[in-house]
Each structure stands twice: as C-alpha cells, then as structure tokens.
Amino acid sequence: MRKIILLGYMGCGKSTIAEKLSSLLQIPFVDLDRVIEIEANMTISQIFESFGEVYFRKLEHDVFVELLASSDKQIIGLGGGTPCYANNHELLKGEGITSIYLKASVATLFNRLAHNKSKRPIVANKSDEELQEFIAKHLFDRSYYYNQAEYKVIVDGKTIDETVADIISILT
Ligand SMILES: Nc1ncnc2c1ncn2[C@@H]1O[C@H](COP(=O)(O)OP(=O)(O)O)[C@@H](O)[C@H]1O
Ligand SMILES: O=C(O)C1=C[C@@H](OP(=O)(O)O)[C@@H](O)[C@H](O)C1
Ligand SMILES: [Mg+2]
C-alpha cells in the first residue's frame, strides 16, 4: 500500500496517532493541515480568519490531491473536515490507499476538545455547553463521510499505544 490515511472528527487523535504509527512502522508521516500551513505560510486559524472556510476547503482539496499524486509511501493525517467536502471521500477509494476512521464518542471528543479548541476555528469560540451539542450534531452530519473509510478503529477508552496496536493489526 502507498498511503495510509487516518480520518475522523477533530480531537479523535489523527495527528497524535499518525505520528506514533509513523515512528513504529518507519513510514513518513504528513499532516494535511501542516502541509496547508506551510504552503500558505499561515496557520489554519489565520486562513479561516482572513479568507474564510470556503477558501480553506479549496486549499485543503488541492493539497490533498497533490499528496495523493505522489508515489511516496506515507501515513497521512487528514483534517477533521477533509472527507466531508469537495468529494474528497471518493479519493479515499483510490488504488494503493488504506483509509482508517478513528471513531470516537461525543463524550471522548468533548473531553479532549474542551481543553484543546483554540487552534480549531470551527469550535474555538464555543462555550462548553455549546460545544457538547455542536459535536453531537456535527458528528452525526459527518458520519456518513467518515464511514466511507475502509476500516474503523474505536478509540474510546484506549491509550495512544493501544490504538496504534489496533491499527498495526489491521495493516498486517
Ligand atoms: N488515547 C489518546 N489517543 C489520542 N489522543 C489522545 C489520547 N488521550 C489524549 N489525547 C490527546 O487528544 C488530543 C488529540 O488531538 P490530535 O491528535 O490533534 O487530534 P486530531 O488531529 O484528530 O484533531 C491530543 O492533545 C492528545 O494528546
Ligand atoms: O473538522 C474540521 O473541519 C477541521 C479540523 C481541523 O483538523 P483536526 O481534525 O486535526 O483538528 C482543521 O483541518 C480545521 O480546523 C478544520
Ligand atoms: Mg490534526
């Protein structure tokens, strides 16, 4: 396989898990958001603030297509919204691509995002009460796209190492 792609809602652990998986499997890791930030020379928050979400989604699609076009073996951590726009979910079905949905419950996501939302413009300004309800509805809306992944790994109640071990058992 050429690309191992991790997807799922904000805070499910895509960036954290991909980095650990990368060091264990000795396969380079790229975080889609980081590539976007480097190419734009701006943070994700600055892109949203200056140009808006529609512009970000276009950039995200272009960078995703660029990454998939390379023949390099890579682990790619997507942004939470990547599979949900611009038909990106169809790109997950391409040849040589293994896609894995890191599935987290609303409670797990809320616990993580409540302390970790400032760099995520979609949730940055929400109160705790708003956040819980927002995640529940948003996750429901996005689940259709996340469920297009080839594999699903439940992350609730698991340590980083346990989730990584689950992924390795899928890959081997
Ligand atoms: N068991 C766990 N697995 C993954 N992340 C965890 C876990 N426990 C706590 N975290 C924390 O949750 C956050 C997940 O964020 P991140 O990896 O950026 O997710 P994503 O890229 O999916 O938005 C990190 O701050 C990470 O340290
Ligand atoms: O869910 C989303 O729409 C987004 C998730 C973020 O990535 P993470 O899932 O890594 O936080 C980032 O791409 C951007 O803030 C938008
Ligand atoms: Mg991330």
TrEMBL record:
Entry GO MF terms = kinase activity
Top-tier EC class: transferase
Q: Principal place where this protein is found? A: cytoplasm
What EC number(s) does the entry state?
2.7.1.71
What are the UniProt keywords, alphabetically? Amino-acid biosynthesis, Aromatic amino acid biosynthesis, ATP-binding, Cytoplasm, Kinase, Magnesium, Metal-binding, Nucleotide-binding, Transferase
Q: In which pathway does it act?
A: Metabolic intermediate biosynthesis; chorismate biosynthesis; chorismate from D-erythrose 4-phosphate and phosphoenolpyruvate: step 5/7
Please list the residues that bind ATP: 11-16, 120
Q: Which reaction does it catalyse?
A: shikimate + ATP = 3-phosphoshikimate + ADP + H(+)
Q: Where does substrate bind?
A: 33, 57, 80, 142
The cofactor named in the record is: Mg(2+)
Q: What binding details are noted for the cofactor? A: Binds 1 Mg(2+) ion per subunit.
Give the location in the cell: Cytoplasm
List positions binding Mg(2+): 15
Q: Which Gene3D superfamilies match?
A: P-loop containing nucleotide triphosphate hydrolases (3.40.50.300)
Which HAMAP family would you find in this protein's record? Shikimate_kinase
What interactions and quaternary structure are annotated?
Monomer.
Q: Give the protein family.
A: Belongs to the shikimate kinase family.
Summary of the function given for this chain in its UniProt record = Catalyzes the specific phosphorylation of the 3-hydroxyl group of shikimic acid using ATP as a cosubstrate.
**Which PANTHER family would you find in this protein's record?**
SHIKIMATE KINASE (PTHR21087), SHIKIMATE KINASE 1, CHLOROPLASTIC (PTHR21087:SF16)
Q: What is the protein's name according to its record?
A: Shikimate kinase
Q: Which organism is it from?
A: Flavobacterium keumense
